[in-house]
From TrEMBL:
Superkingdom of origin: Eukaryota
Gene3D superfamilies: 1.20.1280.50
Organism the protein comes from: Cyclocybe aegerita
InterPro entries tied to this protein: F-box-like_dom_sf (IPR036047), F-box_dom (IPR001810)
Protein name according to UniProt: F-box domain-containing protein
Alphabetical list of Pfam families matching this protein: F-box-like
Residue intervals of the F-box domain: 79-130
């Protein structure tokens, strides 16, 4: 039998191991055991005893490692607790990653680290909760949340709450979600950033009892309801609103995703940045009127814009502070030009033909400095207008950045038209005359046919682009139909194509 002596605790014995019961079955009539089976059984017993001894040593090792961490840690030994706490606080991030538990990871290094981490409130101000699946351990879950909240002291909180959908009749799930929200409500006076994605019928559980204006600066609300909830009476639907019940919060950044604009009750006067999904036209107009400080607005897949075809407002909204508009449109018309005159940045993502609407908008925004279009082509004479230097009919006079990402090229454009327009807008003499100079030009298309006239940039246009690049203009021309082993940079592969043709012609001569 194997005999071991532990060098750590001094135990000198045979370490317990499961005794193997190995039987030997023979087809022969003799009753004598098989010698190989006997030896194998003895070896297996030694192996099991050795494994037991190894587990014993690993247990000793586990108890020694925290002490080793503390001994070899210059971070703890050379810095006062206050400085060490400040350094640990830099580990906090605002990423919305629910699996990241930075405070717990820091606390697991050593007892000293744990003590410092638990006494550093800023480490515990980011609370990421993802309530999915079964809820058997909801008591321990709430206890952990209470400890987390208590360690954050009086610091402002950033809360990210993600709940899977649950129906009203799923009592167990609703009760658990309610218990978590009630714990968060107890600290509502410290909400600095609140991001929730939850069933709409639970949003009303978010309540507050404020003695002053809520400190909320970032608000993101997302939710959904399925068909079985849409038949609820009107009184129930009113409870879906985000309404803290006391003083209205005044955030400066708001995101509304799959939740009606009219369901969010806040003070819009200080809002400067808004992202909104699936808004109705009247909601957008209400938003623009209610948020006079709005600087940036992202609108994704607006709904009901067809009704604006015959809309002719008697009091058009001219939003003087809105500088950046990002539109993602599917099927609807772009009809915002009567309301958004002074914007400086416009991004449009659409898979429908909005060239006529886009022309009207661009004519109405002479202050536009940045234009990015994706999904569809611009109108036919865009580059002709862009290259015109007529003061009376100057088109987009303030434009300094342009990007176009479209699926397919049409025959309505040619490389000479594009290169000459870019050259005219990026020419240094514009700067000398006090006019804005084009600094960035991105053009991304999908071209499959190498035999077409537009697959390769012609030599003259290529020289223009190369000269502008050397002068510091940020130019990127990409072909999204990338062949294996070939660059998607159209300037690179067009230059290689022309050089190869020159080499071939030299050989032929």
């Amino acid at each position: 039998m194997g005999h071991f002596s532990c060098i750590i605790c001094g135990q000198d014995r045979e370490f317990s191991a499961k005794q193997l019961n190995i039987t030997c079955t023979s087809w022969r009539t003799t009753t004598a055991p098989c010698p190989n089976c006997v030896r194998t059984k003895t070896l297996d017993e030694h192996i099991e005893q050795t494994r037991a001894y190894l587990r014993h040593l690993e247990a000793h090792r586990a108890t020694l490692r925290p002490g080793a961490n503390a001994f070899h840690d210059p971070f703890i030994t050379h810095f006062p607790t206050e400085i060490a706490s400040k350094i640990l606080s830099f580990c906090v991030d605002n990423e919305r990653e629910y699996k990241r538990r930075i405070p717990l990871a820091l606390s697991a290094v050593s007892r000293r680290w744990q003590a410092i981490a638990h006494s550093t409130p800023s480490l515990w101000t980011n609370i990421r909760l993802r309530l999915f699946g079964k809820y058997e351990n909801r008591v321990s879950y709430n206890e952990m949340l209470l400890h987390w909240l208590s360690r954050s002291s009086k610091q402002p909180l950033s809360i990210y709450l993600d709940m899977e959908y649950c129906r009203r009749d799923e009592v167990s799930k609703v009760q658990f979600c309610r218990s978590v929200i009630e714990l968060l409500n107890m600290h509502c006076h410290r909400w600095g950033r609140l991001s929730v994605d939850m069933p709409l019928h639970l949003i009303s559980l978010l309540r507050g009892d404020f003695h002053s204006d809520p400190p909320l600066s970032h608000l993101s609300i997302g939710g959904e309801e399925y068909d079985e909830d849409e038949d609820e009476d009107q009184d129930n639907s009113q409870t879906w609103k985000f309404d803290l019940g006391t003083s209205l919060p005044s955030p400066h950044t708001v995101t509304i995703h799959q939740c009606g604009f009219d369901k969010v009750r806040i003070n819009w006067c200080n809002v400067t940045n808004v992202s909104i999904w699936f808004p109705r036209l009247r909601d957008l107009l209400t938003l623009l009127a209610a948020a006079p400080q709005l600087h940036e607005c992202r609108v994704v897949r607006p709904d009901g814009f067809a009704e604006a075809t015959n809309t002719n407002p008697t009091n058009p909204i001219i939003h003087r502070n809105l500088l950046k508009l990002d539109l993602t449109i599917c099927g609807s018309r772009i009809v915002l030009c009567p309301f958004l005159l002074p914007i400086r940045s416009l991004a449009s993502d659409s898979h429908s033909d909005h060239r006529a609407d886009l022309f009207d908008i661009l004519r109405a925004v002479p202050a536009l400095e940045r234009l990015d279009i994706a999904g569809a082509f611009i109108f036919n004479n865009f580059f002709e207008l862009l290259g015109t230097d007529d003061e009376e009919h100057r088109f987009l006079p303030s434009l300094t950045e342009f990007g176009q990402l479209c699926p397919l090229w049409t025959e309505e454009f040619s490389w000479p038209d594009i290169s000459k327009a870019v050259e005219a807008r990026a020419h240094p003499h514009r700067g000398k005359c006090g006019l804005p100079v084009l600094k960035r030009f991105y053009w991304g298309v999908t071209l499959e046919d190498e035999n077409s006239d537009i697959y390769y940039i012609d030599e003259e246009s290529l020289q223009i682009f190369e000269r502008l690049l050397s002068n510091g203009v940020d130019i990127k021309l990409s072909n999204n139909w990338r062949k294996r082993g070939r660059s998607d940079d159209m300037i690179v592969y067009s230059r290689a194509y022309h050089e190869e043709n020159k080499h071939r012609s030299t050989i032929d001569d």
